[in-house]
Amino acid sequence: QVQLVESGGGLVQAGGSLRLSCAASGRTFSSYKMGWFRQAPGKEREVVAAISGSGGHTYYADSVKGRFTISRDNAKNTVYLQMNSLKPEDTAVYFCAGGPDYAAYDSWGQGTQVTVSS
Q: Are 33 and 52 in contact (CB under 8 A)?
């Protein structure tokens, strides 16, 4: 497992941008698939984006394609989520997660709130 700490959330107007960071500790980071999830009030948690250990493969939910970009810097043990053209419906608590497989995330951060005002 790795320990994960998110940062970068906040309040932004619709159309604005935010960059989330997730700092990891542990020697397995570069081998871990990493993902960003979000959970809005009254809704189930959903995957937003995911990235392979090397960063060469990425996945995006349809709702964020073309607006969000996931990336990672294995030298810094950090994964990022660049969020552009934010919409009020992007408002949620965002979590980063890591694991040996996309279906087996075993490490989760505490979450960071993103609020998009209209």
A: yes
80-117 confidence digits (pLDDT tens): 999 999 999 999 999 999 999 888 899 999 999 999 99
Question: With contact defined as beta carbons under 8 Å apart, do 112 and 7 qualify?
Answer: yes
Tokens of 53: 């250990």
Contact 10, 28 (CB under 8 A): no
Quick: pLDDT tens for 25-40: 987 899 999 999 999 9
Asked if 97 and 83 count as a contact pair (C-beta separation under 8 A), the reply is no
- DSSP letters spanning 45-74: -EEEEEE-SSS--EEE-TTTTTTEEEEEET
The answer to whether 18 touches 64, Cβ cutoff 8 Å, is no
Buried b / exposed e over 61-91, threshold 16 CB at 10 Å, is: eeebeeebbbebeeeebbbbbebeebeeebb
pLDDT tens-place string over residues 54-81? 999 999 999 999 999 999 999 999 999 9
